[in-house]
Design a protein that fits this description.
Structural class: mainly beta
CATH class: Mainly Beta
Number of strands: 10
Helix content: 10-25%
CATH topology: L,D-transpeptidase catalytic domain-like
Radius of gyration: 13 Å
Strand content: 35-45%
Largest sheet: 8 strands, mixed
Number of domains: 1
């Protein structure tokens, strides 16, 4: 199963759209790009394997494997990137500002249900890229 995240980089957050088979699943929010600095930046554009994970804090969510220079990068619920994320990706039902969204739990549940249906026998991957096909570099 292949997911595609198309990002738009903004000074106060990164907004995105998550697709499966060219159909939008949900929107996403992340921290702004700050050269992959742990706890302060979204992660680099790349293709990552995604696996299911469960924790007391987030319940069922997703984990991106082998993120360069980072550990435990998750896809979990959050509605404000600057307040609630440390490099992870939050699915949201609607973006209302730079790194700010609404109804994150609802969007995550939609994504998890999609993965449960389509990835029973397959590995899941997500490819992250810029919406304008140009990687953003913090200056």
């Amino acid at each position: 199963m292949e997911l595609e995240l198309k990002r738009t980089y903004l000074p106060k957050g990164t907004n995105g759209e998550l697709f499966f088979n060219s159909k939008k699943v949900c929107a996403t929010i992340e921290l702004p790009w700050k050269n992959n600095k742990p706890g302060m930046s979204c992660i680099p554009e790349k293709r990552y394997q995604v696996v299911n994970r469960t924790s007391k804090k987030f319940g069922k969510h997703l984990w991106l494997l082998d993120v360069p220079g980072r550990s435990l990068i998750l896809i979990h619920p959050a509605n404000n990137a600057l307040k609630h994320l440390k490099g992870c990706i939050a699915p949201v039902s609607r973006v209302i500002g730079a790194g700010i969204g609404q109804s994150s739990v609802l969007a995550l549940n939609k994504l998890l249900a999609l993965i449960d249906v389509h990835a029973k026998q397959d590995k899941v991957y997500i490819t992250i890229s810029s919406i304008d096909a140009t990687p953003k570099v913090q200056r």
